[in-house]
Amino acid sequence: MAATELALMAGGDRVEGTLFGNGERTGNVDIITLALNMFTQGVDPELEFDNINRLINTYERVTRLTVHPRLPYAGELVYTAFSGSHQDAINKGIDQYDAGKGNLWEVPYLPIDPSDVGRTYESVIRINSQSGKGGVAYIMGKEYGFKMPKSMHPEFGRIIQAVTDKEGRELAHDEIYQTFCDEYLTPVAPYELKTFHVNKRHIAGDENESFADVEATLLVNGEEKTISATGNGPLDAFCTALKTDITGNFRLRNYHEHALDGGSSASAAAYIEIEYPDGTVKWGVAVDTDIIIASVKAVLSSVDRAQK
């Protein structure tokens, strides 16, 4: 391969080679690898590989041979990272590229943009027992819109690690998303929100003078209980009522929110990190069209998880 590349760059104008390493009396140079290598040197091979999957499917159907998963540019695992540190680097590189902070493709561990040969980003990050928190966060953000705060990555990374250790195999992306839903979004025991009302709200020019009165009805182990309190905002008032009447003390450590999709009726995701008296720290996540309700539900998500 190297000798052929050097020959072409020195002026050679014809090469005979193989297709995915298979050919008759053509030498052993893979034309696809050679052509794309030349492309990276600024030499246009005048061959089209923008749908390499179609070429692979045709080759495998006609020859009844399979393309090696590590074959350059074409193999199933070429644009794939299992290692946590590699996934984190790819995640950051793609974010920088998508943000338009560079005109050149400079993503670590990916010599070309997979979309240039008809591949998608979906297969770039694959999750198994070697994977780290960066890859999991990339999948949740890129495919499902959940931009988890960075300080939440280790917690969810450990949850996914436990699942991969138990299953002993790679996890599909929808399995990761379902694990996220099961862990954060669907638990409603022992506490579930039934109603929430902001009875009075005063917004002052001085943020320290603003306050809100709230009333909420919860299901506590299946029984309805109404709580109310005043705080410097609806979320603070709800937490005060919850601590006073139901759960006992806890402390909010982090809060993060973002829209999940566009439009006037967009849903919002709220992430809340809570520290409990025994030193336990749990994140809670919730989604709602009302960001205040999403925040209240995120508190209950954390509290429910702390009871497991």
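Next protein, fold it too.
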Amino acid sequence: MGSHLYYEALPSVEQNLTFRYLGEIFKENLSIEDITTDVQRTLGFFTSQSQYNHAAALFADHNNFPGIDIARFGKSINEIFDREVLQNCSILKQFFDVIELYKKHYQYEKIDGVIRQQHELIPEIAVREAVANALVHRTWDTRSHIRVEMHPDKIQVYSPGGLPKDLNREDYLKGTVSTLRNPIVGNVFFRLRIIEMFGTGIRRIKESYTHSMRKPEFDISDHSIMVTLPTVGDAITLPPEEKAIYELLVNDIALSSGDITAATGFKKDKVLRLIGRLKSQNYIKQTGAGRGTKYHL
């Protein structure tokens, strides 16, 4: 039965499901007053035999799936300030609870004269995308929690399950292709505008660090994905020509000097000279050699 179905589309063991929290979120964001059976069908919550599927259970007020394990650390992992496991509730509630914790510890207000300004130690866009991606793309038949580790200098989001089999590391990091492991779950997040568009999450994370010295890191293995979001560093100030090259590399995993020459219109020797300056200041890195040489942030 399951050979042609995603795990999320298989029948849920629990069929007595309620959607009060989902209804509140839909009313607030989409002006939909009630999660009727027709709305549930539109969201893809039923099997062909009109049974609730696993995706429905994930958004239900109560379920038996693993959740999100959150820990807030001090200067070392031996100092644990807070620990909470969000589970047995709608994954939307888990998502928004994590974002509230993030806001509590990584956002602050600063008053400049009569103006009150909001500041972020870590970009909220990056945190929202990282946590949403973990929920949308994780393997739900694995009994492991998503882990969110909050450190003074970074947030790390660990998601069980590696990349879908049709998606390679390079395409994942470029953010140009999206192979959804859980399309029903992803569609609900998309409807609620929690994720902007399928496949753009990684690019949005990178772009939120465009003007920061410190950059996000993506550690991908066969069985997990770890996203590290550092606190933003000092703003980058570069001469216009060097900045043009730097900003090219924000959205691409790696470019050759030929790629950069074509994109900027600069002459080859000028590109190499500018690359040399950026490398000497540790703004960009080099991989490969000879014709295989590429540059990345």
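About the second fold: The domain at 240-296 is CATH 1.10.10.10 (Arc Repressor Mutant, subunit A).
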